[in-house]
Write a sequence for this structure.
């Protein structure tokens, strides 16, 4: 069985594929900015909003795949009760890094599994990161090195690349920082599929066989 990731995130797809899962990506078209804005205006909870977005993505993709297990995910960055979106351009990315520098922020990472018109499982992780104070020269150098790649990140940085040098402390799961609570998700999939990738019967589990 092939799983479907309702996301265009290259890093989420890489994490799932790297864990041995047979998975395809099918980005879901929803108006995330409008949903977040409405939730904030109503005083909504950030974790519930992230879960709602993840569920909406999974539900949208599952319309044409009713029997497929679809994984939806979303991540919202929060600092001092302010919610952040992915920057629109490098100027916005620089402004966002200035706002995050010198303090802690939280990455609220939600994942939902959906099949047959039902939410099978949902989970939220909330890792915290402390970005060190950054000079204008450091911000400029970082954005010059990374370029438009940072525009795909809600934090305007890529922790899996040179962006790690922007930080001096991280609390929480690394995979959740990257946008997917991978370990809890894998635990659910093992339980739901009632098979373990390591038992040697990978053809029935939806996992690809490791080499070596």
């Amino acid at each position: 069985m092939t799983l479907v990731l309702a996301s265009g995130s290259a890093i989420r797809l890489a994490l799932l594929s790297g864990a041995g899962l047979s998975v395809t990506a099918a980005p879901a078209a929803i108006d995330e900015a409008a949903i977040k804005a409405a939730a904030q205006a109503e005083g909504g909870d950030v974790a519930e909003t992230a879960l709602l977005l993840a569920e909406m993505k999974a539900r949208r993709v599952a319309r044409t795949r009713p029997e497929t297990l679809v994984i939806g995910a979303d991540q919202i960055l929060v600092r001092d009760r302010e919610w952040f979106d992915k920057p629109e351009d490098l100027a916005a990315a620089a402004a966002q890094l200035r706002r995050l520098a010198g303090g802690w922020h939280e990455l609220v990472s939600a994942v939902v599994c959906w099949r047959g018109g039902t939410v099978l499982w949902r989970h939220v992780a909330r890792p915290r990161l402390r970005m060190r104070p950054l000079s204008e020269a450091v911000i400029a150098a970082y954005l010059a090195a990374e370029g438009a790649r940072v525009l795909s990140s809600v934090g305007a940085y890529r922790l899996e690349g040179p962006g790690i040098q922007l930080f001096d402390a991280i609390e929480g799961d690394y995979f959740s920082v990257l946008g997917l609570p991978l370990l809890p998700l894998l635990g659910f999939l093992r339980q739901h599929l009632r098979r373990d990738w390591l038992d040697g019967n990978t053809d029935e589990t939806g996992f690809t066989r490791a080499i070596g």
